[in-house]
């Protein structure tokens, strides 16, 4: 049995006003956790900022899943911006837009991720963690940093991990377009377990917690997992939902996958 992981974190988005602060920390924290608490050893790779191009991410994910055999345990984590792309071509039932993660140099659609994961051998145990936004009823004007009741500085205020669609008209259409499930569906057919920072109509937040930047979901997840690494995915998610959503971070982490996978122990 082998254990391998790829941890992606992007703070620096060139040419945008929407840089983040906690995503590289997230990637390093997931990598450290897998090494220290789940015996992943040196087979954990972090890819951050300018190295996290679309080609590099897809190549790394492909190598991760196609290089795994039945019984292997593999993990893919992503922290950065999420967005959606309006589907101007063939409609698949009511799915009129594709969710996407934002690489350093472009978007990676959920369809592209699904195509890679479909190549995975039977019996490989894959966990995907996405601490990003994937949709929302928003326009560009709504993407300002939110101020807390503590009247904190703008620098440390929570910031949505959401990159608006390139075209303003697409951003304005967001209220009218049905939302596609993220990554893989239906859940009973999913090969992997998927943990997300929010649901399809919310933001995931870049947060300043205990003097350090992280994703709000990742920061909470680290505390919960370290307190008891033997939890199942379902037990972990139930505990995570005791902390999120909150008034400060109004996001609802999701757990998707088959019932059998949800009842398996974390990263085992």
Task: Considering the chains and any ligands shown, give keywords for the structure.
about 270 residues; alpha/beta; Rossmann fold; three-stranded antiparallel β-sheet
Strands of the biggest beta sheet: in what spatial order? Answer: 2-1-3-7-9-12
CATH topology: Rossmann fold
Determine and state the CATH class: Alpha Beta
User: How many distinct helices?
Assistant: 7
**Which runs of at least 5 residues are low in confidence (pLDDT < 50)?**
135-152, 167-184
CATH architecture, please? 3-Layer(aba) Sandwich
Number of strands: 12
Strand-pairing-aware structural class: alpha/beta
Task: Using the alpha-carbon principal axes, give the shape.
Answer: globular
Give the terminus-to-terminus CA distance.
Answer: 10 Å
Strand content: 15-25%
Biggest beta sheet summary: 6 strands, mixed
Task: Tell me roughly what share of residues is in helical segments.
Answer: 25-40%
Integer average pLDDT: 82
Multimeric state of these chains?
A: single chain
Domain count, please report it: 1
Secondary-structure element order, N to C: EHEHEEEEHEEHEEEHHEH
């Amino acid at each position: 049995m082998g254990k391998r992981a790829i941890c992606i974190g992007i703070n620096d988005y060139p040419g945008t006003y929407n840089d983040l602060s906690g995503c590289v920390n997230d990637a390093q924290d997931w990598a450290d956790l897998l090494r220290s608490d789940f015996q992943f050893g040196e087979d954990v790779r972090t890819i951050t900022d300018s190295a996290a191009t679309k080609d590099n991410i897809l190549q790394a994910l492909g190598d991760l899943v196609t290089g795994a055999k039945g019984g292997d345990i593999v993990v893919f984590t992503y922290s950065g911006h999420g967005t959606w792309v309006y589907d101007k071509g063939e409609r698949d039932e009511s799915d009129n837009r594709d969710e996407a993660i934002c690489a350093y140099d472009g978007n990676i659609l959920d369809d592209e991720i699904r195509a890679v994961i479909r190549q995975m051998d039977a019996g490989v145990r894959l966990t995907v963690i996405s601490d990003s936004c994937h949709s929302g009823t928003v326009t560009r004007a709504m993407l300002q940093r939110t101020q807390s009741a503590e009247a904190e500085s703008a620098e440390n205020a929570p910031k949505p991990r959401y990159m608006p669609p390139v075209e303003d008209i697409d951003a304005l259409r967001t209220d009218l377009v049905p939302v596609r499930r993220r990554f893989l569906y239906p859940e009973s057919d999913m090969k992997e377990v998927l943990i997300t920072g929010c649901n399809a109509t919310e933001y995931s937040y870049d947060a300043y917690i205990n003097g350090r930047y992280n994703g709000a979901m990742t920061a909470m997840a680290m505390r919960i997992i370290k307190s008891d690494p033997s939890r199942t995915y379902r037990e972990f998610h139930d505990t995570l939902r005791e902390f999120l959503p909150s008034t400060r971070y109004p996001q609802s982490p999701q757990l998707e996958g088959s019932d059998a996978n949800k009842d398996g122990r974390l990263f085992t």
